[in-house]
Amino acid sequence: MRIDIFSDVICPWCFIGKRRLERALRERPQDDLEICWRAFQLNPDMPIQGMARHLYLEAKFGGSERAGQIYETIRQNGEREGIDFRFDLIKQTPNTVRAHRLIRWASERGHGDPLVERMFTAYFTEGVDLGDIDHLADIAEAIGLSRGEVAAFLETSDGLTDVLAETRFAYESGINGVPCFIFDRHYALAGAQEPEAFYPLFELARSEAANRPAAANHA
């Protein structure tokens, strides 16, 4: 089974959704599972240097008071998933294109999932700026990747076209919010759903795979 996850690393519900998928997989383990992280930028027009957090909250929510109300709901949901959201530590809202480029690069080397986990943790519990090359290199090094190699990669534009195309594809396909989980390219589950919501999708994907001609299964 393959699960494509459209997600942005500055989306708190994507972090929560990741945790809930993991709980679902612990309850209903799936053999031969492949998880593919797909780029989705919540703020595709964000300046490459990002934006000061207080200015971002003013533009998106009308100020910190309204944002605080929304964040309280997120904090409560996060606590149930073992996430200690520290929105107070976030000083900069990043453009996430570099983060998505790095996720693609790391995924090609078998490190996609641990990198995404570390990015979520760094941003939401430590306030790390995910638009900064040095910080991204630190994160990559923490999961066993070469810091120098990562920094050199991020100084180029390699992978940029792919990330932008993936985000554009998501919007054109009707994905207007994240997380969005696509099972075997056929069935979608939108939002940070509880683990039980994943079970029918597991069954659908498995059933279809079992009924698919053998040649198609190995295509």
Characterization of this structure:
The protein is globular. Helix 4 (97-107) packs antiparallel against helix 5, helix 4 packs across helix 8 (160-172) and helix 6 runs antiparallel to helix 7 (147-154). It has helices at 12-27, 53-61, 64-80, 97-107, 112-126, 133-142, 147-154, 160-172, 199-211, 214-217; strands at 2-7, 34-39, 51-52, 92-93, 180-183, 187-190. The longest helix has 17 residues, at 64-80. It has one domain (2-217): Glutaredoxin (3-Layer(aba) Sandwich). A hairpin with a 3-residue loop joins strand 5 (180-183) and strand 6 (187-190). It is of the alpha+beta class. The strands form two sheets. A four-stranded mixed beta sheet has the order 2-1-5-6. A two-stranded antiparallel ribbon has the order 3-4. Helices cover 53% and strands 11% of the residues. The protein is built from ten helices and six strands, in the order E-H-E-E-H-H-E-H-H-H-H-H-E-E-H-H.
